[in-house]
Specification:
Structural class: mainly alpha
Shape: elongated
Number of helices: 7
Distance between the termini: 46 Å
Order of helices and strands: HHHHHHH
Largest sheet: none
Strand content: under 5%
Radius of gyration: 16 Å
Length: 110
């Protein structure tokens, strides 16, 4: 399990498919699935989605309005903006556009 949940996943860069996780960890997908379900209580697919949602959140915060929201989403592998917005709202209780608006208005005042 420690091999699967090591820092290699954290520093792996963009991971968009379950095969990417298996490659980075060096274990087959079935082993990966069992470890995720046992220790994290979520699937690797859900983990990848949460990782993407968090990456977008932090990219929005770092952008300070210098980059369009659509560009931020696309750069983080989001292709279905509407569907992603709903998933983002479940995690952060606001749409990505609200995070973006708040961040750009905060930066403009400073």
């Amino acid at each position: 399990a420690s091999r699967i949940f090591s820092s290699s996943i954290l520093g792996a860069g963009p991971l968009s498919r379950r095969g990417d996780l298996a490659r980075v960890t060096g274990v087959n997908y079935r082993t990966l699935l069992r470890a995720f379900e046992r220790y994290l209580k979520i699937s690797p697919k859900r983990y990848l989605k949460l990782r993407q949602i968090n990456a977008v959140y932090h990219a929005i915060r770092r952008s300070g309005g210098r980059q369009a929201l659509g560009d931020i989403l696309a750069a983080n592998g989001v292709s279905e903006f509407g569907r992603f917005a709903g998933e983002y709202k479940v995690v952060f209780n606001e749409l990505p556009s609200a995070t973006y608006q708040r961040r750009t208005s905060t930066v403009a005042i400073v």
